[in-house]
Recover the amino acids of this structure.
């Protein structure tokens, strides 16, 4: 199904169309609604909505208006289009950044609870902040290098990102990984990928954490998170009323690779809210 946003772009979504408690799932960078296929098919007792951010998957792929602000606006318009309230939003990786941006602009409008999956409030690191990605080593200079690499050779840049997300992949077949990359890139636009990478890395959401006044669940991977364990402790300290679950022996891709466990733990935590 599609809804048309205020800019005229068609946004693809799927909805279980029940009168049960609603959950919206926000997918990761360079991905699509398929990140949450297992949850959508198997979670019981909830109205589940998955969709493709503009620029990704089956949604329109504009050559302008691509930033976290625009994706947060799309989220608000989808919520209003579907007349949702008392809502839980699950933000995975970039989806978590979209959720941060939504809260920065709209507060916790129509939200009941949120789930942040393996995402830090500030991606890049500096002398005062070491809780960004790549275990505190990814700086603004590294961002510029990564952008230059994407403009020069997107597939190689993507492969490098795969290795950064999951170092164990360096021991896998590079040919097989490139086939997976081809599948990812086929459904997305290079402009969307690069522009959103810049937008994600540009933002600093630390000041808005105090605005999160609803129950919050933190799902993080160990030892394969792109952040350090201190990032989780920081979020627990800054956001009131948090619960945390660590996916042991997992990588940043646990939402997809451990869909069954992720779905089970999500149901378990939501039942306690």
């Amino acid at each position: 199904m599609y809804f048309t946003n205020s800019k005229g772009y068609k946004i693809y979504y799927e909805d279980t169309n029940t009168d049960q408690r609603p959950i919206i799932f926000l997918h990761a960078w360079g991905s699509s609604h398929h990140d949450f296929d297992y949850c959508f098919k198997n979670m019981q007792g909830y109205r589940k909505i998955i969709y493709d951010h503009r620029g990704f998957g089956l949604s329109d792929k504009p050559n302008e208006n691509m930033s976290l602000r625009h994706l947060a606006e799309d989220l608000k318009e989808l919520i209003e289009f579907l007349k949702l309230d008392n809502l839980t939003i699950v933000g995975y990786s970039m989806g978590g950044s979209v959720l941060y941006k939504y809260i920065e602009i709209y507060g916790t409008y129509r939200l009941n609870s949120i789930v942040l999956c393996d995402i830090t409030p500030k991606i890049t690191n500096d002398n005062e902040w070491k809780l960004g990605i790549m275990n505190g080593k990814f700086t603004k200079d590294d961002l510029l290098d990564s952008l230059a690499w994407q403009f020069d050779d997107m597939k190689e840049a993507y492969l490098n990102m795969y290795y950064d997300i999951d170092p164990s992949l360096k021991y896998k077949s590079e040919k097989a990984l490139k086939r997976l990359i081809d599948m990812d890139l086929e459904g997305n636009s290079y402009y969307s990928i690069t522009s959103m990478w810049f937008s994600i890395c540009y933002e600093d959401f630390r000041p808005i954490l105090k605005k999160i006044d609803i129950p919050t669940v933190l799902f993080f991977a160990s030892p394969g998170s792109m952040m350090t364990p201190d990032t989780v402790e920081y979020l627990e300290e800054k956001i009131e009323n948090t619960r945390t679950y660590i996916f042991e022996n997992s990588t940043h891709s646990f939402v997809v690779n451990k869909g069954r466990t992720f779905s089970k733990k999500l149901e378990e935590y939501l039942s306690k809210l």
User: Anything to note?
Assistant: The radius of gyration is 17 Å.
